[in-house]
Design goal:
about 200 residues, alpha+beta, three-stranded antiparallel beta sheet, two-stranded antiparallel ribbon, 6 helices, 5 strands
């Protein structure tokens, strides 16, 4: 069915702008109703939270602690041999796997020929680390692990450069659960690293 041009109303841009401006009152153009409605929502939420504080999604930290999953990736630590030396054999696999390039290792020759190498220096830059757990996955000796520790605030940048001694011994001062462990329950870890270490 063709359109009859006599019944088509042609509008000019000036008519549209003038008609739109005339329909909005001055108080609507100031957005006062929208601001008042937003403040009403905020005030309603505040009153509801004051009357029923048990329904708040927040926790009262540090009295209450959030429970993270058993695979949470927190602060690193180096595992020890029974002699107290690090289990690490300085194979550089953790440093190679690290996408943030935050692990620095200097290898040295171990006095025991069965072990071959050990880390003379093992540093992790905690400010660069993205807590991905790739270093734990890559380690063939099960020498590096992560805990569920997430409280590590400090005022100095130097406190976040964790050296070998710190990574070996910080868990002696504080009891912390293990976090992310790859293949947990799937393999016998006592058979790793040339037998029981």
């Amino acid at each position: 069915m063709p359109i009859d041009p006599r019944h088509v109303k042609v509008l000019k841009a000036d008519d549209i702008i003038r008609e739109h401006a005339d329909t909005q009152a001055w108080w609507k153009r100031l957005y006062l109703p929208a601001v008042v409605m937003g403040l009403g929502v905020t005030l309603g939420n505040m009153i509801r939270n004051l009357l029923k504080p048990g329904g708040l999604p927040t926790i009262r930290y540090p009295e209450e602690r959030r429970d993270y999953g058993h695979r949470f990736r927190g602060r690193h630590y180096l595992k020890k041999r029974p002699s107290g030396e690090p289990r690490c054999v300085a194979c550089m696999m953790c440093a190679t796997a690290c996408p943030a390039d935050c692990i620095y290792i200097v290898a040295g020759e171990h006095p025991d020929p069965a072990i071959e190498k050990y880390p003379v220096r093992f540093d992790i830059d905690g400010l660069r680390c993205i807590m991905c757990g790739y270093c734990v996955d890559a380690c063939p000796e099960d020498a590096i692990a992560m805990t569920r520790e997430y409280e590590w605030a400090s005022y100095e940048r130097e406190d976040f450069i964790w050296d070998k001694e710190y990574l070996l011994n910080w868990r002696d001062e504080k009891i912390v659960e293990d976090g992310y462990q790859p293949y947990e329950g799937e393999i016998d870890k006592s058979r790793m690293s040339r037998g029981t270490l």
